[in-house]
């Protein structure tokens, strides 16, 4: 009976879910309207819905309840009441490795193909292991935090006290089980930032010098600025974003991190911004460019169902337009750090080729940050510079 009710709730959610909305925004509203659902009911419903979308574009013609069974089998390593009730022969095999589980699914559903989960693998960036990347969608990424300098021992003590299993990834980075209630464990302490592992690694490419002037051009939540400040507190910083609401939210986050000296500017970087920026010349620019976000779809698997390949071209044009308007404010020989959270070559290497061949920048280094290897986001970073005068 419990599993049947879980299925009915899943079907209701799927029936009411507007396809162009993030699940993280839709589900809280659904639960507010269905207050009879307890915390366990909500947790199970979350798991079922997210796992369903983790199957991506595979087996599109199967009924929803059957697709959900396949997803539950592939995305779990421990049995649960849902599998036990609807597919007991699979429930006993749920601890098998990925290849063996995929073989069982293929036997039951000959039309199943792993490459259908994410059917754009031919467009992935260079060096990405396509099979490993595809399999990573069956696993929820971890939660990562970056501990501020000097607070490691306090954070470890609190996590241990709360009996949270965590892993020290080095350089102040800790991985925790997704869903860890950090706001409960650290009610008033501000000892860390929540930031994905790969996002933290982009900081290795900044290398600011004391008293440098830097511009975080698409600042969003400010994570890259905070990395920069932690590395070199004495820089002069300008942060900008097209969304004024985003910039308003930065103040509190920066203040808690001890970042107090910075300028904010609301800028549309697809337009000529000389009237605002004509007096500026920077020792470094971070361009965390708008992108498809395909490297983060392990966290938002519903995006696989919403994606169309024309969006790669759309974002590539946007990235080129922004880069063209940004690089003119860079001092000769100083770095542009180009970052995306995309796994697509069209948004990564192809844009770097444009920066080199059309804008005259010199490529110093580039890397795909293969988050799929460690339950993190997959990102791309390149460090380039204009010719020294």
UniProtKB/TrEMBL annotation:
Residues the record lists as binding S-adenosyl-L-methionine: 241, 268, 288
Gene Ontology molecular function, alphabetical: methyltransferase activity
Keyword rRNA-binding belongs to the record: no
Gene Ontology terms: biological process: methylation
InterPro entries: MeTrfase_RsmB-F_NOP2_cat, MeTrfase_RsmB-F_NOP2_dom, RCMT, SAM-dependent_MTases_sf
Active site residues according to the UniProt entry: 341 (nucleophile)
Keywords: Methyltransferase, RNA-binding, S-adenosyl-L-methionine, Transferase
Residue ranges occupied by any SAM-dependent MTase RsmB/NOP-type domain in the UniProt entry: 126-389
Keyword Membrane part of the UniProt annotation: no
SUPFAM superfamilies from the UniProt entry: S-adenosyl-L-methionine-dependent methyltransferases
Pfam families, alphabetized: Methyltr_RsmB-F
Domain of life: Bacteria
Assigned protein family: Belongs to the class I-like SAM-binding methyltransferase superfamily. RsmB/NOP family.
Protein name (Swiss-Prot/TrEMBL): RsmB/NOP family class I SAM-dependent RNA methyltransferase
Organism: Mucilaginibacter angelicae
């Amino acid at each position: 009976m419990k599993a049947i009710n879980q299925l009915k709730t899943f079907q209701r959610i799927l029936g009411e879910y507007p396809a162009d909305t993030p699940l993280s925004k839709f589900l809280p509203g659904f639960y507010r309207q269905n207050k009879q659902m307890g915390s366990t009911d909500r947790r199970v419903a979350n798991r079922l819905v997210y796992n369903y979308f983790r199957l991506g574009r595979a087996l599109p013609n199967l009924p929803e309840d059957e697709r959900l069974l396949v997803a539950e089998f592939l995305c779990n390593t421990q049995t649960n009441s849902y599998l036990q009730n609807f597919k007991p022969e699979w429930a006993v095999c749920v601890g098998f490795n990925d290849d063996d589980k995929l073989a069982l699914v293929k036997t039951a559903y000959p039309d199943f193909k792993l490459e259908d989960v994410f059917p754009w693998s031919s467009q992935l960036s260079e060096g990405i292991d396509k099979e490993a990347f595809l399999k990573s969608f069956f696993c929820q990424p971890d939660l990562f935090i970056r501990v501020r300098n000097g607070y490691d021992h306090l954070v470890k003590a609190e996590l241990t006290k709360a009996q949270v299993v965590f892993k020290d990834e080095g350089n102040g980075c800790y991985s925790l089980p997704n869903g860890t209630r950090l706001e409960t464990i650290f009610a008033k302490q501000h000892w860390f930032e929540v930031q994905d592992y790969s996002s933290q690694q982009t900081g290795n490419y900044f290398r600011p010098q004391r008293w440098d002037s830097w511009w975080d051009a698409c600042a969003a939540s400010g994570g890259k600025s905070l990395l920069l400040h932690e590395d070199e507190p004495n820089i002069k910083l300008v942060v900008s974003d097209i969304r004024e609401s985003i910039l308003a939210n930065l103040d509190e986050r920066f203040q808690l991190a001890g970042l107090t000296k910075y300028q904010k500017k609301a800028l549309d970087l697809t337009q000529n911004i000389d009237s605002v920026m004509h007096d500026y010349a920077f020792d470094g620019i971070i361009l965390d460019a708008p992108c498809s976000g395909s490297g983060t779809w392990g966290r938002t698997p519903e995006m696989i169902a919403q994606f169309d390949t024309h969006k790669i071209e759309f974002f590539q044009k946007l990235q080129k337009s922004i880069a063209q308007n940004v690089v003119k404010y860079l001092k000769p020989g100083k770095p542009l750090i180009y970052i995306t959270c995309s796994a697509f070559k069209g948004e990564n290497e192809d844009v770097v080729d444009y920066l080199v061949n059309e804008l005259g920048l010199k490529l110093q280094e580039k890397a795909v940050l293969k988050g799929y290897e460690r339950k993190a986001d997959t990102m791309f970073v390149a460090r380039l510079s204009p010719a020294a005068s």
